């Protein structure tokens, strides 16, 4: 049987319990926004620093002399052959590519924007590779406004060129498929002429690790994955992360 | 979201953070039943029962938080539990579940109305007919016409009122009466309350946890809240709600201890009347009455709104596409029919609170594994959830004449669990069989 002391303790608990409940609720109302803000700021700082690293990697990887000079040579050839229309288009595309590269400094962009950048890049590569290169982009309309990391698809596409198409002769086929899988966004980049294993484990590995790290920062509570598979004829990279729309983030 | 659209009626205006999420869930789960079951639990199971009642409700909310997170991330863009069932089940399974949901939904609404009726009957001198008319009219205006936006506006006021009452009245009365006097009064008149060795209360608490969890996992209004709370905050919102919710029955129990100290009583209902009689101040009585009314109204309007949403979005829309005007028209007609039936039921029936809490215990406990299977299983399979819940329900009801009520709830739960477990084992064996491994999807090949 309860003693008077135990009963008093019980009553004290009963009287204090709703006070604690009410204070917890009050605390949430007062500090929730502040806690959110601090967490968001912290994430943004880390994301920005990671983005800087990614940009640095991108610049090192892509604006390397041979890409730059090869592209310039291709453009020069067009000028010499007086193929004016193609020349204008090439310079325009090259300019867009450089502009996008130097101007992108946000932590995320839409699939639509990232793809327009990738298309510019592929157009430039098309001038270099001509008939050898065939690319196809399949993107569901529902994912166009979904967010992705800047240079995510670009890194995967560049890896295909750097570790495969530029190293081996033969038809270069590239497929980019972006689809919705339940609540996830799936980005799949597949290239023919499989990547050279040694190269991919080093340089491409850095790019993929950077993507993985940035995804974890952007979606700290969610499942994300970056997987690379090699078959006899193809190398496929699949990236999965939550499907979030730009509008949702603004809210 | 258009303010005049039906989606606005279902979801309100914005995505909620933790604080507003907690308020919204609290308003749904502090119900007339919380007030009416507390004295009965106290009388039957003593102080341990009183604390246990609070903990089983709180723990059920905390546990649901983990399920809610999965729901929120897996079924992005959905609005109701019906949307999820539609996505995961074939038509047979969908309609089976929908029928159960409507039965449970109507029953939950019925409980709230009965609770309101009982409170009105006990607290006010005028005929029940008048009180019920006023209550149901307000219910129609808030839940039937107002929608979730209006419910949220009133949820804040309701929660402030509830906390204000349960903080103010116990402090005032215990300071006024003194703990020793209360203790002596209880020891003299109700010494059985003070015994802590009470195995039956543990049985009650564990079964109650099942029933509460089953109620939450099938609750239409709670699912709607899962979809309007920000994904990354949904788990924390439910966990905190659980912790805050449990403080309320504890405080209510302390009030009833005051009411029975030093006197006898006729039945558990009369405890509210006894409580009113010791609140020797008109202001305190007024606050207490408002508290009861707010608790019942917020829960009932949430239930009505969620049933309306489910009816229009997941039943009528399955048969014919509706314009916005038609959606509102059908919704209003459905609300009026529901309220009419409730009015008649409340006038002619007088159920007992604990019966109310546990009446559908078999169904609730059978649905736990079924819903968990639907939420956590990646494939769209109808048979396991439907069969397990059906066998659980039937098993529970068949066993009830030969067992105690608590045992039959556990039988329902275990039967459905065993069936779901068998399906999972079968599936796992099939997945690891050589034939299945050979036919696994090959890596992406563009050719």
TrEMBL record, chain A:
<dbReference type="InterPro" id="IPR010559">
    <property type="entry name" value="Sig_transdc_His_kin_internal"/>
</dbReference>
<keyword id="KW-0808">Transferase</keyword>
<feature type="domain" description="Signal transduction histidine kinase internal region">
    <location>
        <begin position="56"/>
        <end position="133"/>
    </location>
</feature>
<dbReference type="InterPro" id="IPR036890">
    <property type="entry name" value="HATPase_C_sf"/>
</dbReference>
<protein>
    <submittedName>
        <fullName>Histidine kinase</fullName>
    </submittedName>
</protein>
<keyword id="KW-0418">Kinase</keyword>
<feature type="transmembrane region" description="Helical">
    <location>
        <begin position="6"/>
        <end position="31"/>
    </location>
</feature>
<dbReference type="Pfam" id="PF06580">
    <property type="entry name" value="His_kinase"/>
</dbReference>
<dbReference type="GO" id="GO:0016301">
    <property type="term" value="F:kinase activity"/>
</dbReference>
<dbReference type="InterPro" id="IPR050640">
    <property type="entry name" value="Bact_2-comp_sensor_kinase"/>
</dbReference>
<keyword id="KW-0812">Transmembrane</keyword>
<keyword id="KW-1133">Transmembrane helix</keyword>
<keyword id="KW-0472">Membrane</keyword>
TrEMBL record, chain B:
<feature type="transmembrane region" description="Helical">
    <location>
        <begin position="333"/>
        <end position="350"/>
    </location>
</feature>
<keyword id="KW-0812">Transmembrane</keyword>
<keyword id="KW-0739">Sodium transport</keyword>
<feature type="transmembrane region" description="Helical">
    <location>
        <begin position="201"/>
        <end position="218"/>
    </location>
</feature>
<feature type="transmembrane region" description="Helical">
    <location>
        <begin position="238"/>
        <end position="260"/>
    </location>
</feature>
<feature type="transmembrane region" description="Helical">
    <location>
        <begin position="154"/>
        <end position="175"/>
    </location>
</feature>
<keyword id="KW-1133">Transmembrane helix</keyword>
<comment type="similarity">
    <text>Belongs to the sodium:solute symporter (SSF) (TC 2.A.21) family.</text>
</comment>
<dbReference type="InterPro" id="IPR001734">
    <property type="entry name" value="Na/solute_symporter"/>
</dbReference>
<keyword id="KW-1003">Cell membrane</keyword>
<feature type="transmembrane region" description="Helical">
    <location>
        <begin position="408"/>
        <end position="425"/>
    </location>
</feature>
<feature type="transmembrane region" description="Helical">
    <location>
        <begin position="272"/>
        <end position="296"/>
    </location>
</feature>
<keyword id="KW-0769">Symport</keyword>
<feature type="transmembrane region" description="Helical">
    <location>
        <begin position="12"/>
        <end position="30"/>
    </location>
</feature>
<keyword id="KW-0915">Sodium</keyword>
<feature type="transmembrane region" description="Helical">
    <location>
        <begin position="118"/>
        <end position="142"/>
    </location>
</feature>
<keyword id="KW-0813">Transport</keyword>
<dbReference type="InterPro" id="IPR038377">
    <property type="entry name" value="Na/Glc_symporter_sf"/>
</dbReference>
<feature type="transmembrane region" description="Helical">
    <location>
        <begin position="89"/>
        <end position="112"/>
    </location>
</feature>
<dbReference type="InterPro" id="IPR050277">
    <property type="entry name" value="Sodium:Solute_Symporter"/>
</dbReference>
<feature type="transmembrane region" description="Helical">
    <location>
        <begin position="42"/>
        <end position="68"/>
    </location>
</feature>
<dbReference type="Pfam" id="PF00474">
    <property type="entry name" value="SSF"/>
</dbReference>
């Amino acid at each position: 049987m309860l003693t008077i002391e135990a009963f008093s303790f019980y009553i004290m608990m009963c009287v204090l319990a709703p006070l604690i409940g009410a204070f917890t609720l009050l605390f949430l109302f007062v500090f929730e926004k502040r806690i959110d803000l601090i967490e968001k700021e912290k994430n943004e700082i880390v994301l920005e620093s990671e983005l800087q690293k990614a940009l640095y990697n991108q610049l090192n990887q892509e604006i390397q002399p041979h890409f730059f000079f090869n592209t310039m040579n291709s453009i020069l050839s067009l000028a010499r052959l007086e193929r004016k229309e193609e020349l204008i288009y090439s310079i325009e595309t090259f300019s867009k590519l450089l502009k996008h590269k130097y101007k992108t400094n946000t932590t995320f962009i839409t699939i639509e924007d990232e793809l327009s950048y990738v298309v510019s890049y592929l157009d430039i590569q098309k001038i270099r590779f001509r008939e050898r290169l065939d690319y196809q982009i399949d993107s569901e309309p529902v994912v166009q406004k979904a967010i992705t990391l800047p240079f995510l698809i670009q890194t995967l596409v560049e890896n295909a060129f750097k570790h495969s198409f530029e190293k081996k002769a033969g038809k270069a086929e590239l497929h980019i498929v972006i689809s919705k899988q339940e609540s996830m966004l799936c980005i799949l980049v597949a290239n023919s002429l499989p990547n050279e294993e040694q190269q991919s484990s080093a340089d491409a590995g850095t790019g993929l690790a950077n993507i993985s790290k940035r995804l974890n920062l952007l979606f700290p509570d969610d499942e994300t994955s970056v997987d690379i598979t090699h078959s006899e004829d193809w190398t496929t990279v699949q990236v999965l992360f939550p499907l979030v729309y730009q509008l949702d983030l603004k809210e | 979201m258009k303010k005049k659209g039906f989606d606005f009626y279902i979801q309100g205006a914005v995505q909620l953070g933790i604080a507003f999420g907690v308020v919204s869930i609290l308003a749904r789960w502090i119900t007339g039943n919380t007030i009416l079951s507390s004295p009965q639990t106290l009388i039957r199971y003593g102080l341990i029962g009183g604390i246990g009642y609070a903990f089983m409700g709180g723990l059920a909310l905390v546990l649901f938080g983990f399920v809610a997170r999965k729901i929120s991330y897996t079924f992005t863009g959905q609005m109701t539990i019906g949307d999820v069932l539609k996505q995961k089940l074939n038509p047979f399974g969908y309609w089976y579940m929908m029928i159960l949901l409507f039965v449970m939904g109507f029953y939950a609404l019925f409980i709230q109305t009965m609770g309101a009726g009982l409170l009105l009957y006990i607290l006010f001198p005028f005929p029940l007919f008048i009180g019920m008319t006023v209550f149901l009219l307000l219910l129609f205006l808030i839940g039937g016409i107002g929608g979730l936006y209006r419910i949220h506006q009133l949820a804040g006021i309701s929660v402030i009122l509830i906390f204000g009452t349960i903080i103010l009245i116990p402090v005032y009365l215990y300071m006024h009466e003194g703990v020793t006097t209360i203790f002596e009064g209880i020891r003299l008149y109700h010494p059985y309350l003070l015994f802590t060795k009470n195995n039956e209360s543990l049985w009650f608490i564990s079964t109650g946890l099942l029933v509460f969890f089953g109620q939450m996992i099938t609750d239409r209004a709670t699912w709607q809240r899962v979809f309007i709370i920000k994904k990354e905050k949904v788990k924390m919102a439910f966990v905190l709600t659980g912790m805050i919710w449990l403080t309320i029955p504890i405080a209510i129990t302390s009030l009833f201890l005051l009411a029975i100290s030093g006197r006898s009583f006729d039945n558990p209902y009369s405890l509210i009347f006894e409580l009113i009689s010791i609140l020797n101040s008109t202001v305190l009585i007024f606050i207490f009455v408002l508290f009861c009314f707010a608790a019942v109204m917020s829960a009932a309007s949430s239930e009505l709104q969620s049933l309306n949403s489910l009816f229009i979005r997941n039943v009528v829309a399955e048969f014919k596409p509706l314009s916005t005007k038609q959606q509102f028209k059908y919704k209003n007609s459905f609300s009026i029919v529901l309220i009419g039936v409730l009015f008649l039921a409340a006038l002619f029936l007088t159920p007992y609170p604990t019966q109310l809490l546990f009446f559908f215990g078999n169904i609730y406990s059978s649905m736990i594994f079924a819903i968990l299977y639907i939420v956590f299983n990646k494939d769209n399979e109808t048979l396991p959830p439907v069969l397990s819940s059906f066998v659980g329900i039937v098993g529970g009801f068949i066993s009830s004449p030969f067992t105690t009520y608590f045992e039959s709830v556990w039988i329902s739960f275990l039967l459905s669990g065993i069936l779901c477990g068998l399906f999972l084992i079968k599936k796992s064996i099939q997945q690891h069989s050589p034939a299945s491994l050979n036919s696994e999807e090959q890596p992406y090949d563009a050719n």
